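Final report, section 2: Outcomes. Of the targets proposed, FkbM family methyltransferase is the one most frequently requested by collaborating groups, and we therefore present its record in full.
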Amino acid sequence: MTGLGTLASTAKRRVGWIIRDRFPFRPVVRHVQGVELVLPWSHRLPDYAVWQPTYGQNLVELGRLLATTGPLTVLDIGANVGDSAVQILNAADGRVLCIEADKAYLDFLHRNVDRDPRVTVVEALLTVDGGDGGTTAVRSGGTTRFVEGAAGDAMPTVSPTSLRTDHPAFDRLRLVKSDTDGYDVELVPAVAEAWRDVHPVLFFEYDPYLTRLADRDPEAVWPRLADLGYEHVAVWDNGGFTVGRTTTDRIAQQGRVLDEVPGGRARSRIYWDVAVVHRDDADGLKAISELVPDELA
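The predicted structure is given below as tokens.
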């Protein structure tokens, strides 16, 4: 009965997605993980929150803990509809700089954060050098991946250095969240370099499959961060459950398990959430050690 119940639940969910995907940007109001959000009807966040209540809460808890040791300033790269910003500020006082390039989600982002003076929105695509190139937004289930294309439907680009210069309120950046479907391994080190004197905690999706799809080397991120002084790494699975703590010199080898997906990668999206802490950041290390107490085998 358990197997039949699971199959029925999966079938019902997929039918629901098919219906919702026919009207993907119909606005709906949803109460998700303690906050109220205006979402596109097709957005998967409410579903993920029901199946895995821990989903996304690692970032929220990390922000809450960092806020207990000093001012919380957050850079939210790939802010989407603003769900991370809203949830972080519901858990702790601070300021969030949201950067989003997908015009389809910007309307929802503004609906969710514009009434909060603690949030600043930048309508741009973050790139390493701020260079302008043709990009096309590929959307699926509430997330966006930008690929090269002749016709660009993204916003103008901005570099991490320009972002810091243009927004002095975030000069003492404490936490970086990046969710850019494969480009995180390129953008996160560039942001860490731009703010290298304050070494913020870096939280991002480590997804080797999407990274290779973006024509990037997933393992290249670790020596780059190590060169900038980042040493400690906390790891969660894609449902927000703890995996363990490790270091930047060991995680490339340990992360190869993500390529070992039974039945093929197309059947299951497997990735890690990681929080990376500078070797001189005692408060950051204390925070991730509290959230992820065990070592990664």
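The chain has one domain: 53-291.
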